[in-house]
Amino acid sequence: MTFELLGRVHKELSITGQALYETVLAVSELVNRKVQIIRLHGHASALLKKIDAVTGRLGQQIATQVSDRLLEKPAVDSGVGPIDESLNDAMTEIQQLKTFLLRIDTQIRELKLEAIHQDLLTFQRDLTLRSSGIERVTVTRSAAATQEPLGALPHSSSAHVATVLRGPFLLAPDKDLLLRPGDIVILIGSQAELDKLTAWFTSQRPGTLS
Length: 210
Known about the structure:
Helix content: 55-70%
Structural class: alpha+beta
Strand order of the largest sheet: 1-4-2-3
Number of domains: 2
Distance between the termini: 66 Å
Radius of gyration: 31 Å
Oligomer: single chain
């Protein structure tokens, strides 16, 4: 009996230790990702300052050359060449800086997507542990929800509409909002209730031909 008790305690401690290790690892990854994003933002800021410096220097050169031409009034217009040369050099440098800036922007987006993905996984796990979930459903043309206000949604005490996506717009779940075919509805709540509500957005109306 004592050995069995010790075995259970050892097992519980092993599970707790593993969970603690996974938590510390997840936190360290999150911190590392945020540090990388901050550093990349710093590099992007430095590149933008360089672009501003190049354009400022170019403007100063053009102003100086034009001013000298007006004062000297040469018989032959010899100022266009140097101006074109300065302009081409500046454009080449700015293009290179913009290329570096685009690469940094891509890296920042990838890191943010990783962070969002991790947050969504954690959120989904939290919901699953509570027998809940989040559903993304598209309103079909012949569904009971089509052309109905959101307030007509069958009552549920444990599931709710989080938002409605329509084209490029994020719509608040107002009870007077008329649903249209193609609307994307985000539902959150207990899994059993979600299954019932999903049918209202996707199932065919009674007596409607397909």
